[in-house]
Write a structure and sequence with these properties.
The complex is a heterodimer.
Chain A: H1 5-8, H2 14-18, H3 25-53, H4 67-74, H5 76-107, H6 113-121, H7 128-139, H8 151-158, H9 173-198, H10 202-210, H11 215-226, H12 228-243, H13 247-252, H14 262-271, H15 276-307
Helix pairs in contact in A: 3-15, 4-5, 4-15, 5-9, 5-12, 6-9, 9-12, 12-15, 14-15
Chain B: H1 5-8, H2 21-25, H3 30-65, H4 69-72, H5 90-97, H6 101-132, H7 138-147, H8 154-166, H9 173-197, H10 201-209, H11 214-225, H12 227-243, H13 246-251, H14 261-271, H15 276-296, H16 298-308
The chains are: A mainly alpha, B mainly alpha.
GO cellular component, one term (chain B): plasma membrane
Family (chain B): Belongs to the binding-protein-dependent transport system permease family.
Membrane topology (chain B): Multi-pass membrane protein
């Protein structure tokens, strides 16, 4: 990795450090106070509150110990929710990062690069709500024999494949939803990975080519290892995103037909069943699962600071 | 380290890296050249096909929204592309007049504009202090705010909703503004702090020697120099707030007079399950502004993503 000015600047400039800073401490607190107070109200206070609520019953009138957590891991409906979240976690992350990498490598060598990138990137600007409407027109289902107005069923009909209710049939409706997410987020992964590809020194690739490396060898032996740190960053971003996935499912199936995930179930428990205890336990479960990622991020940030 | 400023400069719009034919021509036979040309031709076809596949869903919605209601529900949108064409603006007229989506568009703006600028200002102050001031616990608090990036916003919803209901803020725009500001801050502080810290220290130093206060340095040096990074952040925050569903869903307490586009459309999906003519036009209206912003300022958007992605 190249060292830029950006990285060599120390956090506290030396000249600045030498200056007398007496009486400036309170002034600094004034500058950070609005941010810190807001974060206290919107993150720290709710965090403590949610932990307490998760040990209480539905209407928060008495303590029930770990009952809500036990429910999450024993109730068949809840287990379904966790299973779906795991499926999302593995598939959605693999698909977005994997496709992002492949596309980034492919477009790196062609003249139409920026057009292709834009096309893949546009869905980022679209809300999940609008994406939900867009994809309804893909997944729309009419009974066999009727005119199919959903693109996917009409297309498969050309090959004499029976029309399917993509969002209702439980054997693939989760995959149909993951496809929507992949459509929206592959562009994001691609852009970041593509920037990392541009950072691979030209001579490394030249040397490998002179040694007679095939494109595939080049990809696995040079490209992937060289962009590996970036893949890590992109993958953790996707993992956090996917664990919290809400909108796409809420808008397309509402969590019905066995497509429920933790964040949607949280919402349903809260607003449809008024079960504050179980809802809070679900939120804390999300936090516990995400915590290791948070730890990795802090460590990465520390390492970056140390390099400056 | 991975995604540094140096890489941020190679953006979406940057020129594609082309092979260097001069260096290679000697070492290659004509057969290999031919194969290479065929290969790159095939590659171009593949990536263009990919771009088309990616665009089809959005294009489908676009076409559908201009088709007469009776046709939308009986034939696929692609059959509308075959002459004789039969397009109409009726869906848009219906949506704006009958469904109150015009008001929702205005509401989206009322929510998004303060929802974008408030976090930017507050984050800029905080980021400046984190980058250029000294106070005990500075690094701890900065790391703490960055750590908040991964906390699911769902956690905040119940307790803050109760708090807001107690003080009568639920259902008001202010509740959504505050929520978007708070949820946007971790990313905003992180992004701006890194940009500010990268500015040359001599600049700050000489300003201090000239007796300039932090306040003056902030407004006359830092902010003018950070316009590109502020633009990246602004676009990011705007798209996020404009496209948000959950925050409005919860903090507006179901007040339909204040519902933004996303919420109104989500309600349309619920109550009109299959009223596709209305949905298509509504969805496309909600996408229009972010798409314009996106295409106009794509460069900054990408830069924001690259700089911010280190957060993981």
């Amino acid at each position: 990795m190249t060292t830029t000015d950006y990285q060599t600047v120390s956090i506290v400039p030396k000249a600045h450090k030498a200056r007398k800073e007496h009486g400036q401490t309170w002034w600094a607190w004034v500058w950070v106070a609005p941010a810190l107070i807001l974060e206290l109200i919107f993150y720290i206070y709710p965090l403590i509150q949610t932990i307490i609520l998760s040990f209480q019953n539905a209407d928060s009138s008495s303590y029930v110990g770990f009952k809500n957590y036990v429910t999450i891991f024993t109730n068949p409906t809840m287990l379904e929710v966790i299973k779906n979240n795991l499926l999302w976690l593995v598939l959605a992350t693999l698909l977005t990062v994997g496709l992002g990498l492949i596309v980034a490598v492919l477009v790196d060598k062609v003249r139409v690069e920026s057009v292709v990138k834009s096309a893949l990137f546009v869905p980022m600007a679209i809300s999940f709500v609008a994406a939900g409407v867009i994809w309804r027109f893909i997944y729309l289902y009419s009974p066999n024999g009727e005119n199919q107005i959903g693109l996917l069923n009409a297309f498969l009909g050309l090959f004499k494949v029976q029309p399917q209710a993509w969002l209702i049939n439980t054997s693939f409706n989760n995959l149909a939803l993951i496809a929507v997410y992949t459509w929206m987020w592959t562009g994001f992964c691609m852009v970041i990975i593509s920037a990392a590809l541009k950072g691979i020194p030209e001579d490394v690739i030249e040397a490998a080519k002179i040694d007679g490396a095939s494109n595939l060898t080049l990809f696995w032996r040079i490209t992937v290892p060289m962009v590996q740190p970036t893949l890590g960053v992109v993958a953790t971003t996707m993992v956090i995103n996917v664990l919290k996935i809400f909108d796409v499912i809420y808008i397309m199936t509402g969590g019905d037909y066995k497509t429920d995930v933790v964040a949607v179930e949280f919402y349903n428990q809260l607003f449809n069943f008024s079960n504050y205890g179980l809802a809070s336990a679900l939120a804390i479960l999300l936090l516990i699962v995400i915590s290791p990622v948070m730890y990795i991020n802090i460590r990465r940030l520390r390492a970056q600071e140390a390099e400056r | 380290m991975n995604i540094s400023e140096s890489q941020a400069s190679s953006e979406l719009t940057s020129a594609p890296k082309t092979d260097k034919p001069k260096a290679r021509k000697n070492s290659e036979t004509r057969g290999r050249l031919l194969r290479r040309a065929l290969g790159s031709g095939l590659l171009t076809v593949v990536v263009i096909a990919l771009a088309l596949i990616w665009s089809v869903p959005t294009f489908g919605l676009f076409v559908s929204s201009f088709r007469p209601a009776s046709l939308i529900t009986t034939t696929g949108w692609w059959s509308g592309l075959i002459p004789p064409w039969n397009f109409t603006l009726q869906n848009y007229i219906d949506v704006l007049q009958a469904q109150g989506l015009g008001q929702a568009f205005v509401n989206s703006l009322i929510i998004s504009i303060p929802g974008t600028f408030l976090p930017m200002i507050i984050a800029a102050f905080g980021a400046y202090a984190f980058a250029w001031m000294k106070f005990p616990g500075r690094d701890f608090f900065f790391m703490g705010i960055v750590a908040l990036l991964v906390i699911p916003t769902q956690i905040a919803l119940v307790p803050v909703l109760k708090l807001f209901t107690d003080i009568g803020l639920t259902g008001e725009y202010a509740a959504v503004w505050l929520a978007h500001t708070a949820f946007g801050l971790p990313f905003a502080v992180f992004l701006l702090r890194n940009f500010f810290a990268a500015l040359p220290s001599d600049l700050m130093e000489s300003a201090h020697i000239d007796g300039a206060s932090h306040w003056r340095i902030f407004w006359s040096i830092i902010i003018p120099l950070s316009v590109p990074s502020l633009a990246s952040l602004g676009i990011f925050q705007f798209m996020w707030v404009w496209n948000d569903l959950l925050t409005s869903l919860i903090f507006l307490g179901g007040n339909p007079q204040r519902a933004p586009m996303t919420l109104s459309i989500a309600n349309l999906v619920d109550s009109y399950g299959s009223n596709y003519p209305v949905l298509t036009a509504a969805a496309f209206l909600s996408m229009a502004l972010p798409l314009v912003v996106f295409f106009a300022l794509q460069r900054y958007f990408v830069r924001g993503i690259l700089a911010g992605s280190v957060k993981g």
